[in-house]
Specification:
alpha/beta, two-stranded antiparallel ribbon, globular, 14 strands
């Protein structure tokens, strides 16, 4: 009462408000405490022997547990691996086409591991779940025209109407989100968009099936299928250097045997099914994980639109942390690290959008990279992102000469003020700038490169430097095959080269897309195949065109399945 007498109400409110602000911001000032250790770029690279020892330790677990799934030599690292990039339904359809082409070439049977992220994990899970349970299909049947027709019939994944209905549910549940997820830390699923999005994936790609990870383990053993990795992103404690943390900490894997990352450790007590892990891997709409700062992240998360997912932190088995959920605003004080109560997972593409990193760590001898990311200017941003990370964290060089030369030519064009209109990045407005689009060779969508050298400490204490061969498949279409004039009145002669390479359905769709806006219900300027990832509602014809694009690129550009020639691009 004395305090009230000495201060007028306005001053008292100001003092209380100041105290409240200090209390709210204190947690964000203490982000360095208990943070998962990571290498900060600019403080010097780790020593070669240190990296070699770390690689050997990681490889030891794989040798004891994963190498049993190798197709040829179960005493050495995997020989041939495949990674399927992010990109929503666009990437999923393109990946299905690549899988079909590799199957026909006899290469899919030689794949030891398939790694997928976001849309690539949709295609990955389609491949596995169609071979599980009732009405399961064997691999030959899986890639038949009848099976493809079933997939096309379900291609309308997420329409604008469904999205609007889901967002209305989000608005209704805003109070519940605030009470149960912000005032108290129960981390309940109050986002209708998340539920409908997960159901859409299961309906389109899983034919309403789901499977636990132990069941998936038995499936790949029984059918002699490749080992698989579903990549997500783990939120590591907020702070200025959050987005610069090591890939080994943030890339959070789900495999048939375990889940986790180096930053959080690993467990085999799976909290989710394969279907939910796939949905998390593609949870692109997630403002909370993309917003630095604990307070700022909490504010945007209160909008109730995030697709990310909380799992209990398996490192923290104390029953006390469950009681902490009842502490008001405890989420503002909780840490996302090994000592936190929860681990927050979101789209794997937020960290590494090619799903390549997990295969590099496993020392695959040959890696097929399927890049179906949104890249209208062919700037290969995801290639450069993982290239820089591998150089920084592992002291290895990821090199594809054609891509590196492409960037050099674009920089030269910029210096010479040769400007072209481009889309820029998917989340940026149009920019007028020098673009790599005019320099990319669309007639050569399959590129060759390597990752070298990968240091590993051997049993005799020597350091062996290994080289990984990379075959890089870029989603693109060669417009040059569509130029020219008919040589006769026969329709078969029109665009003869294009039809021979891409097939009739893809040629017809591509020509129609040049005349119409085929981006679906959303209104975007677009050009096939670089339709924005915002559009997740594909017509059957659109979905089939992407499948055929992936299939025909493999059919024309990848050599036959003789072991000594596998993955060698065909000559042009």
């Amino acid at each position: 009462m004395d305090l009230i007498k000495r201060h007028n109400p306005a001053n008292l409110a100001l003092h209380l408000g100041t105290i409240l602000i200090i209390l709210l911001y204190l947690p964000s000032c203490a982000v360095d405490i208990n943070r998962v250790p990571f290498h900060t770029r600019g403080y010097g690279l780790p020593h070669l022997e240190t990296i070699a020892a770390e690689n050997s330790e990681a490889l030891a677990w794989c040798r004891e547990n994963e190498w049993q799934f190798n197709k040829v030599d179960k005493t050495r690292p995997p020989e041939t691996c495949l990674c399927l990039s992010g990109g929503g339904i666009r990437s999923a359809a393109f990946s299905v086409g690549v899988l079909k082409g590799l199957h026909q070439k006899g290469i899919l049977d030689k794949i030891d591991i398939i790694s997928g992220v976001s849309g690539g994990s949709y295609g990955l899970s389609w491949y596995y779940l169609q071979q599980y349970g009732e009405n399961r299909k064997m691999e030959d049947e899986l890639f038949s025209s009848s099976s493809q027709d079933e997939l096309l019939a379900r291609s309308r994944m997420f329409t604008l109407g469904e999205m609007g209905f889901s967002e209305l549910g989000n608005i209704i549940l805003l109070p519940a989100n605030f009470i149960f997820n912000h005032l108290f830390a129960f981390n309940l699923d109050t986002t209708m968009v998340r539920r409908n999005y997960e159901s859409a994936i299961r309906r389109t790609f899983h034919h309403d099936k789901d499977v636990s990870f132990p069941e998936a383990f038995e499936l790949i053993k029984k059918n002699d299928l490749p080992y698989f990795i579903i990549n997500t992103s783990a939120t590591i404690d907020y702070g200025p250097s959050y987005h610069g943390s090591k890939l080994s900490n943030r890339v959070f894997e789900f495999t048939p045997l375990r889940f986790g990352s180096d930053g959080f450790g690993y467990s085999n007590d799976f909290p989710v099914t394969v279907g939910r892990a796939v949905a998390i891997s593609g949870a692109a709409i997630d403002l909370a994980s993309m917003t630095p700062g604990r307070i700022e992240s909490a504010l945007v998360s209160s909008l109730n639109i995030d697709l990310g997912y909380h799992i209990n932190n398996f490192n923290n088995k104390s029953s006390i942390h469950y009681l902490k959920r009842f502490i008001p605003f405890y989420s503002l004080f909780n840490h996302y690290d090994k000592k936190g109560t929860h681990i927050y997972l979101t789209d794997g593409g937020h960290t590494e959008n090619l799903a390549l990193y997990s295969l590099v760590r496993r020392l695959c001898g040959k890696i097929i990279v399927v890049d179906a990311t949104f890249d209208p200017d062919y700037q290969f941003e995801d290639y450069h992102k993982v290239k820089n990370a591998l150089r920084s964290e592992m002291q290895v060089e990821f090199e594809i000469k054609e891509i590196d030369k492409l960037l050099q030519e674009a920089e030269l064009a910029e210096r010479n003020n040769i400007l072209n209109v481009s889309y820029g990045s998917e989340f940026s407005p149009r920019l007028e700038k020098a673009t790599t689009r005019s320099h990319f060779d669309y007639s050569a969508p399959v590129l060759r490169g390597s990752i070298s050298y990968f240091p590993v400490r051997m049993p005799n204490d020597s350091i062996e430097q290994r080289k990984i061969e990379v075959t890089y498949i870029k989603m693109s279409i060669d417009d040059g095959k569509f130029y020219g004039f008919p040589t006769s009145d026969s329709m078969a002669e029109i665009y003869r080269d294009a039809r021979r390479y891409y097939g009739d359905q893809l040629v017809q769709y591509y020509l129609e897309s040049k005349l119409n806006n085929n981006c679906g219900e959303l209104i975007f300027d677009c050009e096939f195949p670089q339709y924005t990832t915002y559009d997740q509602d594909y017509t059957p014809e659109q979905f089939e065109a992407y499948i055929n694009l992936g299939y025909h690129i493999v059919r024309n550009e990848i050599s036959e399945d003789t072991p000594e020639k596998i993955l060698v691009a065909s000559s042009h």
